[in-house]
Amino acid sequence: MVQIINDMNEFKTFLTAAGHKLAVVEFSSKWCGPCKRMVPVFHAMSVKYQNVFFANVDVNNSPELAETCHIKTIPTFQMFKKSQKVTLFSRIKRMICCYRSGFMSNPIFEFSGADAKQLEAKIQELM
């Protein structure tokens, strides 16, 4: 089942409930063509992977949350464990690495958000 998230409090509650399990959050909009194509795929994944938490944020209904999560394109899929972002997917087709205080932290990858096979492969990898 895909939980609908409308604000930061619901987002924090969702991540807390997921705990050590993988949480996948889709940032999308009703008017977005690629987002519309991913809706049934994302729902099917939520049924298939019942040990993973799935949620959706409509960026038009929750612009503050989208801004807080640094959403620039849609659809974007962000993955969390223990309330920390693990990996994010977006339509930008490039890979970047994050650095904190001069040390390399876990890499953050960006992929095509409408690519269901890549999304499912990353879910399987991170479960």
Automatic annotation (TrEMBL):
Compartment(s): Cytoplasm; Golgi apparatus
Cited SUPFAM superfamilies: Thioredoxin-like
Keywords: Cytoplasm, Developmental protein, Differentiation, Disulfide bond, Golgi apparatus, Redox-active center, Spermatogenesis
Entries under Gene3D superfamilies matching the protein: Glutaredoxin (3.40.30.10)
Keyword flag Cytoplasm: yes
Pfam hit, one: Thioredoxin
One annotated Gene Ontology cellular component of this protein: Golgi apparatus
Domain Thioredoxin stretches: 1-127
GO biological process: cell differentiation; spermatogenesis
Stored InterPro entries: Thioredoxin-like_sf, Thioredoxin_CS, Thioredoxin_domain
Record bears the keyword Cytoplasm: yes
Biological role stated in the UniProt entry: May be required for post-translational modifications of proteins required for acrosomal biogenesis. May act by reducing disulfide bonds within the sperm.
Family statement: Belongs to the thioredoxin family.
UniProt name for this protein: Thioredoxin domain-containing protein 8
Organism: Colobus angolensis palliatus (Peters' Angolan colobus)
